Amino acid sequence: EVELVESGGGLVKPGESLRLSCAASGFTFSVYSMNWVRQAPGKGLEWVSSISSAGSITKYADSMKGRFTISRDNAKNSLYLQMNSLRAEDTAVYYCARAMRGGGTLFDHWGQGTPVTVSS
Amino acid sequence: EIVMTHSPATLSVSPGERATLSCRASQSVSSNLAWYQQKPGQAPRLLIYGASTRATGIPDRFSGSGSETEFTLTISSVQSEDFAVYYCQQYNNWPLTFGGGTKVEIK
């Protein structure tokens, strides 16, 4: 069974940094592209970033470019999101999501999310 | 950026009724359109991809149609467990974008 478990969320002040992790199990992690999607309180879904299976290609939403860095460790079946210069508007639940193989970047499995609050 | 727009924002239906949800793209996304269901406090769940293909384990009362800029998600007979928020997502172009969602509520 596919399982994605996020961790690392919490309360930080504006300008601070946070590193999220996602532990994957139940599938061959190294052959799947992986993604982060977030959801601000009471709002809709917002794509954050994607990384190819080998980690050689990364994509970011414009508002995160230069501040967030996605990475992965296929030996550890883990996905990461380094978030720097955090702003109040980055407050959200951050989901780790697997991209469907061969179908384009849509998300066929999701973790339960880790909450991030940016507040002074 | 491709903007995805849902209509209506809220749909009130009685159990057993048919529900029709619409999603419009600001430019063509071909058939690269997915639908997700999200219940309160839960992660989203993939329902439909390729505009009309049901994901694994999704009941056949859910169906998707459309292409280019106009898409529809139909629930043929709404069950109690279907009351939720539904999102469309285009994956034809970067950045990937979601619509703001349609909330299906009990009438």
Structure description:
The complex is a heterodimer of chains A (120) and B (107). Chain A is built from no helices and 11 strands. In chain A, strand 4 (34-39) and strand 5 (45-51) form a beta hairpin. Chain A has 120 residues and is mostly beta strands. With 107 residues, chain B is mostly beta strands. Chain B has strands spanning 4-7, 10-13, 19-25, 33-38, 45-49, 53-54, 62-67, 70-75, 84-90, 97-98, 102-106. In chain B, the strands form 2 sheets. In chain B, strands 2, 4, 5, 6, 9, 10 and 11 form a 7-stranded mixed sheet that branches. A 4-stranded antiparallel sheet of chain B has the order 1-3-8-7, with no helix packed on it.
Distance between the termini of chain B: 35 Å
Quote the beta fraction of chain A.
Answer: over 45%
- Quaternary form: heterodimer
Gross morphology of chain B: globular
Q: What composes the largest sheet of chain B?
A: 7 strands, mixed
CA radius of gyration of chain A is 13 Å
Structural class by helix and strand composition of chain B: mainly beta
Biggest pleated sheet of chain A: 7 strands, mixed
